[in-house]
From TrEMBL, chain A:
It comes from Falsiruegeria mediterranea M17. InterPro entries: DUF2849. It comes from the Bacteria. This is Uncharacterized protein. Residues 70-104 are annotated as: Disordered.
UniProtKB/TrEMBL annotation, chain B:
PANTHER family: BLR3264 PROTEIN, FERREDOXIN--NITRITE REDUCTASE, CHLOROPLASTIC. This is Sulfite reductase [ferredoxin]. It comes from the Bacteria. InterPro entries: NIR_SIR_4Fe-4S (IPR051329), NiRdtase/SiRdtase_haem-b_fer (IPR005117), Nit/Sulf_reduc_fer-like_dom_sf (IPR036136), NO2/SO3_Rdtase_4Fe4S_dom (IPR006067), NO2/SO3_Rdtase_4Fe4S_sf (IPR045854). Gene3D superfamilies: 3.90.480.20, Sulfite Reductase Hemoprotein, domain 1. It comes from Falsiruegeria mediterranea M17. Residues 119-271, 408-545 form the Nitrite/sulphite reductase 4Fe-4S domain. GO terms for molecular function: 4 iron, 4 sulfur cluster binding; heme binding; metal ion binding; sulfite reductase (ferredoxin) activity. It is an enzyme of class 1 (oxidoreductase). Keywords: 4Fe-4S, Heme, Iron, Iron-sulfur, Metal-binding, Oxidoreductase. SUPFAM superfamilies: Nitrite and sulphite reductase 4Fe-4S domain-like, Nitrite/Sulfite reductase N-terminal domain-like. Its EC number is 1.8.7.1. Pfam families: NIR_SIR, NIR_SIR_ferr. The lineage of its organism: Bacteria, Pseudomonadati, Pseudomonadota, Alphaproteobacteria, Rhodobacterales.
Amino acid sequence: MARAFSPKIVTANHLLEGDVIYQTADDRWSRHISEAELITDEAHAQLRLLDASRQANVIVGAYLADAVSGDNGPEPTHFREDFRRTGPSNYVHGKQETSTQPRA
Amino acid sequence: MYRYSEFDTAFLAERNAQFRAQVERRIDGSLTEDEFKPLRLMNGLYLQLHAYMLRVAIPYGTLNSAQMRQLALLAEKWDKGYGHFTTRQNIQYNWPKLNDVPDMLDALAEVGMHAIQTSGNTIRNVTADHFAGAAADEVADPRPYAELLRQWSTDHPEFQFMPRKFKIAITGSENDRAVIKAHDIGLQLVERDGVLGAKVIVGGGLGRTPMIGKTLNEFIAFDDLLAYLEATVSVWNQIGRRDNKYKARIKITVHEHGIDDIRARVDERYAQVRPQFKGVDMALLDEIKTHFALPTFREASVATFEGAYTNDPVFRSWVDTNIAPHKNADHAIVTISIKKHGNTPGDATAEQMRVMADLAQEFGYDELRISHEQNVILPHVHKSDLPAIHARLKEHELATANIGLISDIIACPGMDYCALATARSIPVAETIATRFDELKLEHDIGHLKIKISGCINACGHHHVGHIGILGLDRAGVENYQITLGGDGSENASIGERAGPGFSYDEIVPAIERLVFAYLDLRDNADETFLQTYRRLGLAPFKAALYPEAQADAA
Ligand code: HEM
Ligand code: SF4
């Protein structure tokens, strides 16, 4: 039997800014993970990743990252994604500079 | 100071114009990322976790005040006001925007600098001792030889498609500050019967298979060195493994064939290639040397220095840790610590860069160096100027007296920036430094090198740290492995794994237990951590690291 599919989001870096972005259900790129589309079906995930990869003049390096549903939309499960949605821990730079992102 | 002949103004301008066009074509969609990525990497532009990163080369770690000021300008204008000095003797900017990079490269070109990376499986930039040209203990300045090697290997037809990349490091001193035993080839300049030559070490390297280089030849006279190195690289080129990226480095070839077999093959090849070298290289070397000529050292009394040393304990402490002997007895080598307790190792603000540039211009014959230990050096300073320099450094948080001490930590960017990381390294370094500063034990502990990498690529040189820390991802949680007894000096050794790893919250207390164990175990205050470790071995340190295991066994 196939293993249960763990929910995913599509994430990438913005081509010009280089910062972390998330694919939304209405096909925008958001800078907030809370607005990401949480994908619970494997076939749909592959499709959405393909949609993302076609936008090569907007984004770089799209991939599927594990996420879970939280109080404010999707939340990361791995610490790497937690850093990506926040910024580095040695300075208040990156996303944490401009917005309040809850830290797990 | 030497300027790369091939990187002259016209060449750089052309390369930058090319890259500007490539960036435009990437943005307008005519280049895909797959097409663009190799082009941007060639120009030092990486994509990290939160942003792009631009890596600027500082050949031989040598730069002048105008260049340092330009680095400050880049930090201020196109980054977040700081730059990160790395173990590769270069500087990284962590926040550039793709659109701005061509302007940044043009600004670098104004002062003869660039971000061009020698990439691919070629002989990479040769690295040299950061005290080169100044150290009291050197036989000769290694930089002209480094530059000769670079010119010889660049565009050498035989060396364009080698099994893997190839790195050479060179030092002019017995005291190895260039970690030559962790390079594919390490060279130590030596003099024998009035003839200058080099000891040749081969097969060192870190990364996932760390190895200490072995002596291939005790002495090769300079007239023969290029021929001998050509023979060495050529043997590896022929028998090195191309089937597996991780087994392709010369360290594996040396390990698999044994040093004696390699030596025999090199000697055979050397006999064939030697007649082809007719001394043209020695003429070139003479010409290169003129670019590395020493300044004319000024003569003056050192009385003010001696007075300050006697009367000012803060100054004395700084001199004792941060000053190294210069070949001119009235001069000194100043290492400016970029390791203030609690700050990111190697990060300097634009303002700090300008202060260091000013000091170099006013007092330091306009020379600065970047060390692989992520500090900045004024290689030539008259001792009478030290009190004034110290006073100025103090005003800008640059006077930390900790060179070679526990807070002088090498840390790679780790998970805070690096896309390849498996764990963070910067906050571990910050916390260790802060903790031992609070304990006020740093000077009592003495010489101790901690080196931290955020993944197995070992950019933080953890294998050769007296205490090495490797950050890993264990089932989705940061986990830190400790190695002990590593050494990057002339007595190089690879650290030994101490046991199971520690979580992020446990790693600093574990280091603290380790250091307290050392303080208990050492014979006397002069026995360093490494000496104590070498005398007693792993067991007593392991007991300190894992007290529960001790209790269980009891
Ligand atoms: C943040 C972006 C960086 C990336 C993506 C990166 C990537 C890598 C990789 C993949 C290797 C292994 C190469 C191999 O063994 O074939 C490596 C080696 C190395 N890196 Fe980095 N690195 C980065 C930053 C740094 C920094 C900031 C430093 C200096 C503090 C550094 C110093 C080194 C050194 C000295 C080695 C050679 C280790 C050896 O002898 O095998 N790197 N790097
Ligand atoms: S050691 Fe790993 S985490 Fe650290 S800079 Fe190198 S590649 Fe990145």
